[in-house]
Every structure is written in structure tokens, then in C-alpha cells.
Amino acid sequence: MIDENVLYIIGLVLVMLYILTGFDDFIWDIITLFRRKPYKKELLDLKKVDDVPPKLLAVAIAAWHEESVLGDVIDNMIASVHYPNSMYHVFLGVYPNDDATITVAKQLEEKYENVHMIINELPGPTSKAQNINYVITQIKAMEKEKQWHFEALNVHDSEDVVHPYELKVTNYLLETYPAIQFPVFPLMEMPKFSNFFKNLVTNTYADEFAENHFSTMVSRYSSGAFVPSAGTGFTLSRAVIDSFGEEDVLPKDSLTEDYRLSLTLYQKGIQMYYPLIQVPRINFKNEFVHEFIATRSRFPYTFKTAVKQKTRWILGITMQSFKFKEIFSTKEMTFAGRYSLYRDFKAKIGNMLVLVGYPVLIYFFASLFWDLPPIYPKYSLSWYLCVLVTIMMLERQLFRAVAIKKVYGMRSVFFACLFPPILPIRFVYGNIINMVATMKAFKQKIFGNQTPVKKEKKAKRKNKQSEQKQLIWDKTEHHFLEKDVLQRYHRKLGDVLLEKGFIEPKGLKEALENANEQKQALGAYLLAHDLLSEDHLLEALANVQHLQYLPAANLSTYLQPEFAEKFDREQLRQWYCLPILESDNHYVFAFCDATPRDVADRLEATYQISVSTIYALKQTILEGLDRLDTATPLIDFAYERYEQKFISYKQLFLVRAYQEKTATSAEELLLKMGLLPPSFAVSSEHSETIKQLPESTDPLNLRKTTNLTEKVKQ
């Protein structure tokens, strides 16, 4: 028989440990709950996003043995991202000893003008940090060749579903914030009883990320605490990158380079901005919903791989990125910042409490049905403390349930938090994964990664025997989403109309229902019932199809008199097409909804030219054809850069469009957009306002200061 005093002491010590490691979290949750409203008021108005000229952005993806998913990932990104494809470039960091991935990356490079393969100087695998650091050096080399200047670096993983609006929102936020971390939400199947255990592991990730990225990260940011990078879906401005000079941006000596980088920036006074932003849209069921601008990705499906990944996270974050004394010794860090580091540090202790906590809990439940000595005698000190711990646990479950509801819906809340109530299976299983991962992290910290020779030989034999099975498992692990599922993340006409504020949600929903009943295209229905102007419709369609749109106000800047002699204008009137630009026998034509679908092929066959297309109103095209032979084209600095092949016709159109919007000179826009290097000197015959801008390896003087927030905002 167990001694009751010993049992009481065990229960008391355990419950006190839970309170010591969790009561501060309870208080933090309550306090930061009331700070969420001010944070919501800071969220941006999406209608203003398009008012900011697009900056040249670099997207870096490190890839090692990703041949099975890389092609689909990039195809989906290029097809779905709503940011001018001439203003972002994707850099794929691959290794010289990974032929399969190189083959896929090379095909993507040939397929898309804005995709580039970067072969590492070292054989792989090295580390994600080394890979991205090398990509950064090659981006800078490309800048010298192109006379460009990438304004920011966006980092993604090779299995990410990038949100269509992420880059355009990044472009807007970079006006104010030098470092940005978007939410990351794991992809999950619709939860059912039939797939509950099959998806148990990956759904524990969904639960934890929903809680962390809906609640915890918002609380951290709004209170001025340390906001860690999630390793994907984060952006660094060029000023931040240049502040490192010739040093590595991502630390190569860290298992969690993303966490260490964001901590380094925080210690210098730069807090990662965390935008929890929703956009309106019509989903695949024709329901009006709000969707988070977040990175979506698949996470491990097996206990073993989850433990392996989380072991690296726990070891890198809680045992390697900082020491306990740094929490108190780091100068000019706020209380909230110190507390957030302490909270990360103590996570490993909380994870280990599960080791004794669940056996005690099992004993407690058993004592309810069998005649066993109570571990928490009623109305004793330990009993009252146990009640407090229960309240803390229910509060945590409530916060998690709210987060899961907002991110995944009520069905997921049931399976995550109520199946069964009090101690749901997914919650318990997630804690067990974290406990085992923490134990392995401690083992690696104390003993290192060395294993006995016998164990190593045994492992090699085992790997040989299961080689075929391992290959199959890798393929399943790296499988990307099916194309029909990916289509749900793409934006359609109705989504763009909502995002731009051209139509109200209620009106769009009614129009969709009526158009479907009448078997009519949505755009045609909206025009026929005067619910949308033709100008707005064409602008939205151009956005959906990733084409340029020529406003009537910009027409005169493009008309070229020599085109009147090159082409038969009567024929062009019949085809409703207008020549706009030419370079090396490549012509850009404006088309409208009345233009026959095969006109591009007809033009190429008739005039022996190559053709690219943009959108314009029919009236704009006809007016342009009438004025073609008498027009005086605008030959400004931007046009000269186009003729010199430093910018493309797409980039020229963007410069002209924002000249009209912002009343800014072409030179200033080219500099702001990154299409001119900062050191570029414009001669006086072009402009008197743009002067030599000195290059600097540390433009914000980040290495010499510890408080940079005001500097960056200036």
C-alpha cells in the first residue's frame, strides 16, 4: 500500500511545479487579452495597398532533394501570387550534388523569366542558413549586372503554399516595418472520425500553430515583446540585410537560424512586425468568408518525424539560441521582451512535467473508481492548488479553442478540444510528442550526436533492409497538394472585386447566385445590370490573369506614329487591338473583351513578329488607333531604360501607371521600386532632382546602435 504522506507530497510538489511554470502564462494571457483591441486598430486597409508602387522583391527558397514538390510549388506560386511578376524574382538554392533537384530547377528557370537557379558553392546538404546566405550573395551579383536593387528578401520553404496577397501586403508594410513575419498555419484535411488517427500527428501541429500564431504572436507583438521568426513566410528589408555588411545574415552555427536571427534583430531594437490580416473572399462553396494572409504548409504525419523536427526546435531555441543569464543581462530590453525569452526558455521544463503529470492524473482517475488513497485530499492545500491548476488548464483550452475556431472552424474545435472533454486526445498526444522531443534534446545537449560504433553499424544494416520503404515514405512526406485543392487558394474575379472594393459582399453573393441560375459569366452579368463599370471589370480581369491594364489616361504616353505605317489600321480596328511598344521585333498590343481570341496568332503570322498582350477598354483602343499617326510619344528616362533593356515593358507600364497615381518623376519611381541602384547618378539632362546617392554597407547604422525602431521609421 502506498504511504498517504508520500503520495500527498508527490501530488503537492507536482501541482506546485505546474503553478510555477504556468501561472505566469495565465496572468500574461489575461493582461494581453485587453491589448488586442489596440493592435487590431493598427491593421492595414487593403484598399490602400495598391497605392504603393511595387518594389523589387527577392524570394529565396532552399532546396535539397525536393525534386518531387519543387515544380508544383513554384508553378502554384507564379500562377496564384497577385503581385506584378516583373517585380518579384524567385531564387532556388540547390546543391551541385543534387542532380534531380537541379533538373527541376533548371526547367523552372527556362519556363519563367523571374525564376533563377542558384547552385551552391558547397556540396549538400549544408544548412538552410548557409544555403540562403549564399543565395543572398548571388542576388547581389545579379543586381550589379541588371543595375537593380532588391528592396527586400522574402524567405519560404520548398513546400509552402504562398498566399496570393502576401507579396503585395509585404510591399505595403515595408514602407514602415523593416522585418515582417506572416502567420504560418499547417494544412490539414477536413477532420472526421474516419481520419482522426491517421492525421493525429499533423493535426497536433495545426492546434499548436493556431494557438501560437493567432493568440501568442499577437500578444507578443502588441506588448512589445520578442516576436520570433517562424523560419518561413518572413521578410527582411534591404536596410536590415545591408546592416550585416559582409557577415552572414542567417547564423550558420544555429539549429534554429530563424529564431536566432530575429532575436539578434530584437536585441538591436528591431521587432518583427506580425500582421494578422484577413481578406474577404468567396470560397469554393460560394460562401462569403474572411481568410488569413498566411503561409500554409504540410507538417510531419508520423510520431518519429514529428519528434525529430521538434527535437531540433527545442534544442535550437531553448538550449542554443541564448543563455538564461542573457534574459537579465541584455541591455535596453523591456520587461515584456525579457519575459518572452523566459517563456521560451522554460518551455522545456513544462514539456518534461508531462512525464510525471500524466501518471499522476491516471492515478487520480483510478482513485475515483477504486479504493485508493487520494493524492489530493479534499479541501487540503494541494486540493486547492489542484483546482487552480484546473482553472489554468481550462483557460488554456479556451484560448486554444478560440484560435482553432478562427483558423480552422468549429469542426476542428470539436476534435481538438472536446474529443473527449477536459483531456482531448490531440492535446494529450501533442504533449507526449513534445515531452519525447525534449528528452531527446536534453540527451543531444549532454551527450552530443555521437553514437556507439555497434549502434551505428546496426542502423546501417536496418537502413539497407528498409531502403525501399524509406524512399516511398520520403515521397509521401514531400507530396504537394493536388491541383484541384490548390485552386481553392487561387483568386477569381469575385475575390479581386472584393479586395479592391469594387463591389460589396452582399451584392457579389447575389450576383453569383443569379449569374449561375442564368448560366451567365459573372463579369457579363455585372455589366448587364450596371453593378460594375467596364473599367473596373477589365482592371480586375487583368489582375486575375496577371496582365497589365492600360488606363485611358495613360494612352497618349504610348502612342508611336511609326506603328501607323507598320500595321494596317483598318485591320487593327476590326480586331480591336492597338500596338503600344516595340523592342527587337517584339510588340506589345492592347486587347479588349471584343478582341477575337486568336488575334495574337494572326498578328504574329501576318507581320512576322512576336506579341505580348495587355488589357484596355475598347473605346481606348479605338481612340488610340485614330490618334496613332499624329501622336507624340513620351520619351522619358523610364522609356530610355526600357530601350536599353534595363527594364521590361511590364516594368515600364508600372512606372507610367504610378507616375499618374503619385505625380512622381520616372527617376524617383525607378529608384523607389528598385529598378535603379542607389548609387545611380542621373545626369542633369534627365533630372535635377535626383542626385548621386552614396552606397552604404550599413545605411541604418544598425551595428552601432541598440535602438533602431525610430531610425527605421525615419
TrEMBL record:
Where found?
Membrane
What is this protein's record name?
Answer: Type II secretion system protein GspE N-terminal domain-containing protein
Pfam families documented for this protein? Glyco_tranf_2_3, MshEN
- InterPro entries per the UniProt record, alphabetical: Glycosyltr_2/OpgH_subfam, Nucleotide-diphossugar_trans, T2SS_E_N_sf, T2SS_GspE_N
- What cellular-component terms does GO give this entry? membrane
Keyword Transmembrane assigned: yes
Q: What Gene Ontology molecular-function terms does this entry list?
A: glycosyltransferase activity
> Which keywords fit this entry according to its UniProt record?
Glycosyltransferase, Membrane, Transferase, Transmembrane, Transmembrane helix
Q: Which organism is it from?
A: Enterococcus saccharolyticus subsp. saccharolyticus ATCC 43076
Specify the superkingdom.
Bacteria
Topology of the protein relative to the lipid bilayer: Multi-pass membrane protein
Transmembrane portions of the chain: 6-31, 349-369, 381-399, 411-429
